[in-house]
TrEMBL record:
Coiled coil: none annotated. Its cofactor is [2Fe-2S] cluster; [4Fe-4S] cluster; [3Fe-4S] cluster. GO terms for molecular function: 2 iron, 2 sulfur cluster binding; 3 iron, 4 sulfur cluster binding; 4 iron, 4 sulfur cluster binding; electron transfer activity; metal ion binding; succinate dehydrogenase (quinone) activity. Its EC number is 1.3.5.1. Part of an enzyme complex containing three subunits: a flavoprotein (frdA), an iron-sulfur protein (frdB), and diheme cytochrome b (frdC). It comes from the Bacteria. It catalyses: a menaquinone + succinate = a menaquinol + fumarate. Keywords: 2Fe-2S, 3Fe-4S, 4Fe-4S, Iron, Iron-sulfur, Metal-binding, Oxidoreductase, Tricarboxylic acid cycle. This is Fumarate reductase iron-sulfur subunit. Residues 3-94 form the 2Fe-2S ferredoxin-type domain. Residues 141-170 form the 4Fe-4S ferredoxin-type domain.
């Protein structure tokens, strides 16, 4: 028998001074293969045309429909209602700027993060459009592609304890971006250059390693491996930077 689902949905329009944050409740009968995306569209069509939420691809590709579903960040278009209990609470992703109801602005944060980690190939070689691009080993190209699959949904940031405490934290998505360029043989940056970008508490040393990011990533990116590798490399770089200082102190003490 089809279930009746009760949706408790966060409502607020920050652009309207009269608006106060509150929850609205809607009841829908469940249909076969219903996703949260379908449910939200039905709520908009049948109950409240003013309900705000984002979507574009409806196929887990654009990353725009992420929201907090019963306490867990997830993509609305990829969440089947049959996997949820009869009572569903929907909140906008925390951390990002609220546009209204379930809609947040992840775009500005991702653009600023890409600028901050200098998310482009750094090379001293001049670009010659008439020259054939140098071939990359298949295994390297595949490893880069694996990390490039990030759809910028923001789920990993919304689930991250450090990001909730400090808004300058790069988060798993930002650190994954650095990991992607470290793999790229065309990028001539060294670990000392990456240390300059992520070697502090707003970068890799702020990560508490509890891996909520990996748990909620809808694309199953290997975030745990990337965070661990970056932590090792950046800790090694920090050690190499500080060792000469301690040697000098030792020499002075011996005098
Ligand atoms: S492992 Fe690090 S990046 Fe991932 S959720 Fe925890 S603190 Fe955030
Ligand atoms: S790493 Fe995963 S969870 Fe984070 S933004 Fe990319 S796809 Fe979304
Ligand atoms: S609508 Fe594009 S990922 Fe959900």
């Amino acid at each position: 028998m089809a279930r009746n689902l009760t949706f408790h949905i966060f409502r607020h329009n920050p652009a309207d001074p009269a608006s106060t944050p509150h929850m609205d409740t809607f009841v829908l009968n469940e249909t076969a293969a219903m996703t949260l995306f379908i449910a939200l569209n039905r709520i908009r069509e049948e109950h409240d045309p003013g309900l705000q939420f984002d979507f574009c691809c409806r196929a887990g590709v654009c990353g725009s429909c992420a929201m907090v579903v019963n306490g867990r960040p997830a993509l609305a278009c990829h969440t089947k209602t049959r996997d949820l209990p009869e009572s569903v609470t929907l909140l906008p992703l925390p951390f990002f700027k609220l546009v209204g109801d379930l809609s947040v602005d992840t775009g500005v944060w991702f653009r600023e993060m890409y600028q901050r980690v200098e998310s482009w190939i750094h090379t001293a070689k001049a670009f010659d459009p008439s020259k054939k691009e140098a071939r990359m080993a298949n295994a390297t190209a595949e490893a880069i592609y694996e990390l490039d699959r990030c759809i910028e949904c923001g789920c990993c940031i919304a689930a991250c304890g450090t990001a909730r405490m400090r808004e300058d934290f790069l988060g798993a998505a930002g650190l994954n971006r650095v990991a992607r360029f470290r793999l790229d043989p065309r990028d001539e940056r060294k670990d000392a250059d990456y240390f300059h970008l992520i070697g502090d508490d707003a970068g890799i040393f702020g990560c508490m390693g509890l891996l909520a990011c990996e748990d909620v990533c809808p694309k199953h990116l290997p975030l745990q491996d990337q965070l661990a590798a970056l932590r090792r490399k950046m800790a090694g770089t920090a050690l190499r930077r500080t060792l000469p200082f301690f040697r000098d102190v030792k020499k002075i003490r011996k005098k």
